[in-house]
């Protein structure tokens, strides 16, 4: 059974994070500072617009729907930049498992490939849906005269079409920024957790087969204990690296679901189809990401319980 294609899931994560200069094995400070400065200025302009129209409820809700995403984006890439060393160690650790020699039976390889394929599917879906949402948000106002794709406050008047098109074109950087900066960190978390789930499941299989070879039981038991200890350390390192990240995800996604739901209800579908579809896809993206976090947590919980039962039996 060939597992050479298993590294493709890491390649997807590589593409998402490398664009911002955040891939732990290829940091690019120039690229990171450019995008970080860009998104910070964007956030400042959106808050300026929020303050200017603070008495307009519909504008405030529409503005916050975008601004919270940008705040989460800034927070995510900042956490990743700070935790680069820990992330590099985690990725190096799981890369050791991408070798055929480590798997003794076809069942173990099947388990590994199952979780690897699942991880790749979720990462691809989140990336594509998030990218489509970013594009739809950007083009929804393209037919309106002198209307920006996002709710920002410019400190000069847009009176010429040429100036308008230049500013509008500058806003296009938000599409890859949202796609890579918002989805990228979440995708790497999902990849790491599902990989650990697969290794725990393989360990369960090894524990269940432990007594079938009484001559080598002491050696096998030693290897199982060492692997179990390694997986526990991986989970602890993952927890310490992502604890703050998951806290802001919990708060941010809760607010985004409320704002996205309000916008869907408040937007007349017949008059503003583009806006309605943008907010609908926006809400689907947030829900899909939330389900992804819940699913990997449930997988890790179930596999840990299965391992416990296997040891008991």
Automatic annotation (TrEMBL):
Annotated InterPro entries: 7tm6_olfct_rcpt (IPR004117)
Domain of life: Eukaryota
Example GO molecular function: odorant binding
Subcellular location, record wording: Membrane
Key word Transmembrane present: yes
Topology of this chain in the membrane: Multi-pass membrane protein
Signal peptide residue numbers: none
Entry GO terms, CC: plasma membrane
Membrane-spanning segments: 57-79, 121-139, 165-194, 250-270, 276-296
Cross-referenced Pfam families: 7tm_6
Keywords: Membrane, Olfaction, Receptor, Sensory transduction, Transducer, Transmembrane, Transmembrane helix
Annotated GO biological process: signal transduction
Name the record gives this protein: Odorant receptor 22
Organism: Cephus cinctus (Wheat stem sawfly)
Lineage: Eukaryota, Metazoa, Ecdysozoa, Arthropoda, Hexapoda
Gene this chain is encoded by: Or22
């Amino acid at each position: 059974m060939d597992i050479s294609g298993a590294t493709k899931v890491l390649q997807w994560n590589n593409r998402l994070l490398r664009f911002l200069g955040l891939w732990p094995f290829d940091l690019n400070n120039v690229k990171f500072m450019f995008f970080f400065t860009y998104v910070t200025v964007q956030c400042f302009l959106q808050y300026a617009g929020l303050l200017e129209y603070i008495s307009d409820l519909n504008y405030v809700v529409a503005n916050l729907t975008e601004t919270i995403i940008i705040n989460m984006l800034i927070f995510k890439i900042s956490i990743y930049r700070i935790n680069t060393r820990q992330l590099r160690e985690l990725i190096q650790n799981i890369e050791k498992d991408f070798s055929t020699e480590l798997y003794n039976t076809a069942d173990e390889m099947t388990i590994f490939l199952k979780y690897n394929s699942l991880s790749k599917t979720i990462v691809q879906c989140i990336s594509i849906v998030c990218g489509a949402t970013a594009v739809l948000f950007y083009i929804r106002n393209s037919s309106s005269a002198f209307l920006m794709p996002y709710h920002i406050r410019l400190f000069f008047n847009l009176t010429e079409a040429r100036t308008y098109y230049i500013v509008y074109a500058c806003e296009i950087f938000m599409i890859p920024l949202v796609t890579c900066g918002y989805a990228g960190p979440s995708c790497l978390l999902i990849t790491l957790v599902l990989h650990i789930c697969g290794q725990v499941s393989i360990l369960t299989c090894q524990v269940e087969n432990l007594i079938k070879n009484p001559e080598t039981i002491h050696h096998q038991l030693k290897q199982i204990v060492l692997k179990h200890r390694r997986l526990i350390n991986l989970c602890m390192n993952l927890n310490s690296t992502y604890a703050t990240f998951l806290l802001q995800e919990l708060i941010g996604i809760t607010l985004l679901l409320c704002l996205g739901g309000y916008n869907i209800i408040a937007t007349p579908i017949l008059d503003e189809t583009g806006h309605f579809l943008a907010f609908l896809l926006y809400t689907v993206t947030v829900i899909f990401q939330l389900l992804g976090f819940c699913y990997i947590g449930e997988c890790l919980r179930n596999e840990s319980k299965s391992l416990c039962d296997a040891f008991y039996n």
